[in-house]
Every structure is written in C-alpha cells, then in structure tokens.
Write a structure and sequence with these properties.
The protein is an alpha/beta fold. The chain has helices at residues 20-30, 37-49, 53-60, 67-83, 91-108, 117-126, 139-148, 171-179, 193-201, and strands at 4-7, 14-17, 110-113, 130-135, 157-160, 186-190, 206-210, 227-229. The strands form 2 sheets. Strands 5-4-1-6-7-8 form a 6-stranded parallel sheet, sandwiched between helices. Strands 2-3 form a two-stranded antiparallel ribbon. The N and C termini lie close together (7 Å).
C-alpha cells in the first residue's frame, strides 16, 4: 500500500508559459519575420539533444547553480536556440534581434503549476499520504511557487540537488532516510525515464512516468515496464 509519494517538479508539477516554441515565432512575426512554430520547435529539440560545448557544464549542474548563474545560462541557452534559425540579414542587426528576443523570453515567461496539481496534492493529503518533492532543479524557485500557490505546507520536504546530492538519482537514498518508509510504500512520479524511472528503481522504489501531452515532443523514449499517466487525476487508480 502506498503511504508516500515523491514528485519530480519540472514538467511533472510545473511548466513554463508561454512555451518558447510558441513565443519566439510570435515575437519574430512582430518584426515581420516568418518562422513557424514547428520549425522553431525542431530547433528546440535539436539543441536539447546536442547541447553546445560552452553550455554543457552549466546544463549538467543547472539545479546546483546560484540564481544569477541560472538566469545567465537560460539567456545563453535561449540565444543558442534562436541562433539555430540562421536568420538572414545584417549580422549586427541579427545580434540585436537575438538580444531582444532573449530579453523578451526572460520577461514574458513564467513558471506555473499544471491545473491538476493543487487538487491532487490536497486529495493525497486527505488520504493521509505523505508527499515530497524530489527534483534536479534548485530549491528556491520550487519553494517560492509552492508558497505562492498555498500548498508548500502539504509537502514534508523539498529534496533537491542544491541541498543534498548533486545527482538527482542519489537523492532517492535521502527520500528513504528522511521519510522512514520502506521502498514498497513509496511511489515516485516524474517525466524523465532515466532519473524518474530507473533512478528510483535503483533503490527498489517504483515509479510512474507522467507523459503530459505538451511535453511528448521531448520524450521519444518509452519503456513498457513502467506504468504511465498523462495527468495527475489518473494517479488515484494506483493508490487502492
């Protein structure tokens, strides 16, 4: 019987709006430049699968970085996405455009909870199930968003790579130690097959892979040995 649930955060409980592959074409259209959502989406996928050398270190350690370093990385990462479009024109003007686009992404995007999160978190609390966050991201943004949404107190602890082990997978050991539940009474929910699937299994913790529709473009891999859901409302059928 499940008595404890740990949640991944990004793309499991929270996501960024507006999505970059929708926002950038919209901004470019304001400048009279036609780039389709699908075209830029492919560039986003391409960059994610082939991180430039100068971004690899901060990409791999993102959750452990200070806020200033994370903000700077995101700016450089978005600039690299835009750079893959190979926009035509005067090089100086293109660089000015890239800088403008990068600033607009930073100003307009906001991380929000999915619509099903608050109701499910409260339902699990009513069922007496202890809840944790176990994320590869930094704790500060997670705590802030949960606090703003008035659900921070529903979680026993926020376990993140800036507070414990720098590798997310290793923090399932922390979850076992801090929750005091045996592995067979814990269930982990996350979107990444490696860190949220094989990671907890290393500690005999079962997991469910959440494959939210808007994120499927980044989830080409699948493993039939894992149960999967598309939203948190489906979670209740695993708690009986």
């Amino acid at each position: 019987m499940i008595k404890c649930i740990s949640f991944d955060f990004d793309r499991t409980l929270a996501h960024v709006q507006p999505q970059t592959h929708h926002l950038v074409p919209k901004l470019l259209a304001e400048k009279g430049i036609g780039v389709s959502v699908d075209e830029f989406l492919q560039k986003c996928v391409e960059l994610r699968q082939n991180i430039p050398v100068h971004l690899q270190d901060h990409y791999s350690r993102f959750g452990t970085l200070s806020k200033d370093l994370r903000d700077n990385f995101l700016r450089e990462y978005n600039k690299a996405r835009i750079g893959l479009l190979k926009l035509d024109g005067d090089q100086k003007e293109i660089e000015i455009l890239k800088e403008w686009l990068t600033n607009q992404i930073y100003l307009q995007q906001k991380k929000i909870l999915y619509d099903d999160v608050i109701s499910m978190v409260k339902k699990l609390c009513d069922l007496g199930i202890k809840q944790y966050i176990l994320s590869g991201n930094h704790s500060d943004g997670i705590v802030q968003l949960l606090k703003e949404s008035n659900i921070l107190d529903y979680f026993e602890e926020i376990i993140t790579v800036d507070k414990f082990f720098v590798k997310k997978i290793d923090n399932f050991k922390i979850l076992l130690e801090h929750s005091n539940f045996p592995p067979n009474e814990i269930l982990h929910i996350g979107d990444d097959l490696v860190t949220d699937g094989y990671g907890p299994r290393k500690y005999q913790i079962e997991s469910i892979i959440i494959r939210r529709q808007a994120q499927l473009i980044f989830l080409p891999k699948h493993d039939e040995s894992f149960q999967s859901i598309t939203n948190l409302d489906e979670l209740t059928k695993f708690l009986g």
